[in-house]
Design goal:
The protein is built from three helices and five strands, in the order αββααβββ. The protein is α+β, with helices and mostly antiparallel strands. It has one domain: Nucleic acid-binding proteins (OB fold (Dihydrolipoamide Acetyltransferase, E2P)), CATH 2.40.50. A five-stranded mixed barrel has the order 1-2-3-5-4. 22% of the residues are buried.
């Protein structure tokens, strides 16, 4: 229960820190208002497809080298779970993204989401920063 409250606190802090950030980049979802959009930036550790949905495991606070070498189990054992998020999409947002890419991912804070030990969020927009 303590982990869930820590994750919830992290989300609230993220809302405060990134909630007012404006972006001039192309928005892939015109239905989401800017006040609902939240940003997460990190490196891609895994990319999988399950039941027709793309899943992208993104970790912040690591190097590109670690992202290229690490697996899901490595990061869940060594990294703070607040720095690890699974992003999901049914709209093929992740086709050009590969393991080790640094990405910025926007998600809708207004949508309901599950809160297991590793947060899982539906992506609204994604941009590769470094390949």
């Amino acid at each position: 229960m303590k982990k869930i409250s820590l994750i919830f606190t992290f989300i609230l802090l993220s809302i405060g820190l990134f909630g007012c950030q404006q972006s001039n980049e192309r928005d892939t979802s015109s239905q989401v208002t800017s006040s609902q959009m939240q940003l997460f930036q990190g490196y891609v550790i895994e990319k999988v497809t399950e039941d027709g949905r793309e899943k992208l495991l993104v970790v912040k606070g690591i190097t590109k080298e670690k992202a290229l070498e690490a697996t899901f189990h490595d990061v869940t054992e060594s990294e703070d779970h607040e720095n690890i998020i699974w992003f999901v999409s049914e709209e093929k947002h992740f086709q050009e993204i590969e393991k080790g890419n640094q990405v910025k991912i926007w998600w809708d804070a207004g949508k309901l989401h599950s809160e297991p030990s590793i947060l899982t969020l539906e992506v609204e927009k994604v941009k590769v920063i470094k390949e």
